[in-house]
Prior knowledge:
With about 325 residues, the protein is of the alpha/beta class. About 45% of the residues lie in helices and about 15% in strands.
Amino acid sequence: MNLKGRNFLTLKDYTSEEIMYLLDLAAELKLKKKRGIPLETLKGKNVALIFEKTSTRTRCAFEVAAHDLGMGTTYLDPASSQIGKKESIADTAKVLGRMFDGIEYRGFGQEIVEELAENAGVPVWNGLTNEYHPTQILADLLTIKEHFGSLKGKKLVYMGDARYNMGNSLMIGCAKMGMHFVACAPKEYFQDSELVGMCEEYAEESGGSIVLTESITAATKDADVIYTDVWVSMGEPDEVWEKRINDLTPFKVTSSIMQLAKPEAIFMHCLPSFHDLKTQIGKEMGERFGITEMEVTDEVFNSEASVVFDEAENRMHTIKAVMAATLGAV
């Protein structure tokens, strides 16, 4: 399968066969790294990493993956990039495309990474936008496949605010791969109906399904995966905290909710997580609202069912696969 020159902006652009190819490649690259087999197949190439929203896992995953493949990296944070300020997105893309072999973007609207891709002339990879987070979903799918041996037919339940990048991308990924996706939240937190309709078409073709429900019991019955994410995204105003906590606390992942799923069910979270008060924001929200955790209890987060750190590691392996495939290293 030849993916050389392709952008990686959303899983909507990839077939189930192409997604499985990337997962298999990631598993192969992961095994080689564990065995200490060098992989500098892209030595001499360089990539630009544009981070309008900072991140621990995404930056480290891209930098280590690029280094393992022999590439150099240039990190551009909000203070060191003029994208959209003194220089248009299109002009930035054209300049960077002359200097680099690939460009990663993590930031705001999907239209920004789309415009970068239209003008760069080199592969552009979406490290996160408001609407989609495809590299995270690859890591999630790899983690599920490692744990259960397969993806098709598995039921994944997303608890909480499903309207943004994680809910959207998990729904797309599950629908493409023949999985059963359930969003469990108050109705106002469901995904856009147009995207839901698109994913229902994917699911019909793959043998999967899409369900949106407010019923925790119905959602979690026979679930293989219980997934959640933070309730307030980066860049959102403080005023939304109170409403989200009030609306979504019934959908917090607790040990009782995990017991409603299959006995072998796993817990997943893309991180960071407010499962205790050991962060600045967690401490502030704890003092303000009298809570000790938000979207998941510390008991579940640190339980044997939790595979959150497997997911975090797999970000690097799947990102490596995307860069290797789109830059022609395989």
